[in-house]
Specification:
With about 475 residues, the protein is an alpha+beta fold. Helices cover about 55% and strands about 15% of the residues. The strands form three sheets. Strands 7-6-10-13-1-14 form a six-stranded mixed sheet, covered by helices on one side. Strands 2, 3, 4, 5, 8 and 9 form a six-stranded antiparallel sheet that branches. The chain is rod-shaped. The model is unreliable at about 470-475 (pLDDT under 50).
Length: about 475
């Protein structure tokens, strides 16, 4: 509210100053007019000029204070004395003191009446004394004689005028401040009402958003149930391998990373698939990928993994319309392993995916080809190769998507990276499977901290030993 008062006072001050300029111009013109009667040109020009210089200099030198207004009050008193002198004591000239007093009301400051009143009192007392003492060329009044009683009445009437004008200036000032306070209170009430209305609208919008979010979340969770029903369940790994663990952290309830497996005689096909995107789009792609894997395993069960990937790539490109540049660009990265537990070999082919195998000699990475399945590649023929890997019972096979390595975190807020992920796997490869799973979970949370998850994250660890009475652990 104080700022509002200051702005209002500054506005009054500007308007009063403009009015003062015109008022002083009229007074100066009046002095020049009176000079024609008794040829008092020196008085009209000299006194008025000095008075105007005093006022405007004080206003220029101290623009932020009220001192120049007090100088103005004295200047108005000087003009009154000038007019009385110019008209040789004409009684009517005394009324210019009352005009000046009334004019000062525009500044709404009763204190401005004080310097004007003192100036009038000093002038009347001094000039009346000098005139009646007999000093020549001193003009106060055209009366031959003035008693002390008459002088006292004259001063009292002037004081009453000054008091009335000062009181009126004070009343106007109080009234304006009261209006400012009322306006401020009204503004606060209006602002409070507006904020209340805004909060009501925001609450309604928030309620609608929450309802919409609940509907979307329910739909995604239903999609999750459908996806889990269509994809191979990780607990089924226990039917083929002695022990295993699966770390699966979708970015948005459902995701595009999953593990697929299928028994083919004495061999087991195992695939880690990373579909384009995450959330619902990624989940839809997992259905496409699962159908392709099941179809290839059913129709071409004896083919090596590289041929299977080539067949899947061709079928995917055709099924989702990727023969043209403007077709769908979605695809998938996949690591496909054909594990022969009888002969202890793994035949591996990868599309932008690698695997890790931990043996007694250490941890080794086997890289796939630098092609994803799907997508439009003009004048480029994709080829996939099969690598054969020998293992001993108890060795570990790790399949993973790139989400774990791409997670931002740590002190420098950077990606974990492939080297960081390999170092993690190397540090846990000799631990029991339960401990490996715990380390993978804890390391991910520690690295990520409070940051948002970057992508779907998937890691599977499989102990290469024929199943007896073990069960898979999934997350």
């Amino acid at each position: 509210m104080r700022k509002t008062e200051l702005r209002f006072e500054a506005q009054i001050k500007r308007k009063a100053d403009r009015f003062t300029d015109r008022f002083l111009l009229v007074y100066t013109a009046a002095g020049l007019l009176f000079a024609t009667v008794y040829a008092t040109w020196l008085m009209a020009i000299g006194t008025a000029g000095l008075s105007l210089i005093a006022y405007y200099f004080s206003k220029w030198a101290l623009p932020t204070t009220k001192l120049y207004q007090y100088v103005l009050a004295v200047v108005i008193g000087i003009f009154m004395a000038q007019f009385i002198y110019q008209m040789h004591g004409m009684f009517e000239m005394h009324f210019f003191a009352f005009i000046g007093s009334a004019f000062l009301i525009v500044y709404q400051d009763w204190r401005l009446q004080i310097p004007l009143g003192l100036m009038v009192l000093a002038h009347h007392a001094g000039f009346a004394y000098m005139q009646y003492w007999g000093i020549e060329s001193v003009y106060f009044t055209q009366l031959d004689f003035m008693t002390m009683q008459q002088f006292g009445i004259h001063v009292c009437l002037a004081a009453c005028i000054f008091l009335l004008c000062g009181s009126w200036a004070h009343v106007i000032q109080r009234s304006n401040r009261s209006q400012i306070e009322q306006s401020f209170e009204i503004g606060k009430l209006q602002e409070a009402n507006q904020q209340k209305e805004l909060m009501l609208r925001l609450n309604n919008d928030l309620r609608a958003v929450n309802e919409l979010n609940k509907d979307i979340t329910d739909s995604i969770r239903y999609t999750q149930r459908l996806q889990q029903a269509l994809l191979p369940h990780v607990d089924g790994l226990a039917d083929h391998f002695f022990r295993s663990f699966v770390f699966n952290r979708p970015h948005s309830i459902v995701g595009g990373d999953f593990l697929w497996y299928k028994q083919l005689g004495h061999e087991v096909l195992v695939a880690c698939v990373d579909c384009t995107g995450h959330g619902v789009p990624g989940a839809f792609m997992t259905i496409v990928a699962t159908d392709l894997l099941n179809r290839v395993a059913r129709e071409q069960p004896d083919q090596p993994p590289a041929i299977m990937l080539a067949m899947m790539d061709a079928e995917l490109t055709h099924s989702i319309g990727q023969e043209k540049k403007d077709g769908v660009v979605d695809g998938m990265d996949i690591a496909l392993c054909r594990i022969d537990l009888r002969n202890r070999t793994i035949r591996f082919a990868g599309a932008m995916s690698s695997i890790l195998v931990a043996t007694q000699d250490g941890l080794k990475m086997y890289k796939g080809d630098r092609h994803s399945l799907g997508g439009f590649f003009e004048d480029e023929r994709k080829t996939f190769g099969t690598q054969e890997i020998a293992f001993e019972e108890g060795d570990m096979l790790y399949l993973y998507s790139d989400g774990y390595a791409h997670q931002f975190g740590g002190r420098r807020d950077k990606k974990l990276g492939r080297s960081g992920f390999i170092a993690l796997v190397n540090s846990i490869a000799s631990l029991p499977l339960d401990d490996q799973y715990s380390h993978v979970c804890r390391a991910f949370e520690d690295w990520k901290g409070a940051r948002q998850q970057t992508d779907d994250c998937f890691v599977a660890g499989i102990q290469l030993r024929r199943a007896r009475s073990a069960s898979a652990k999934a997350a």
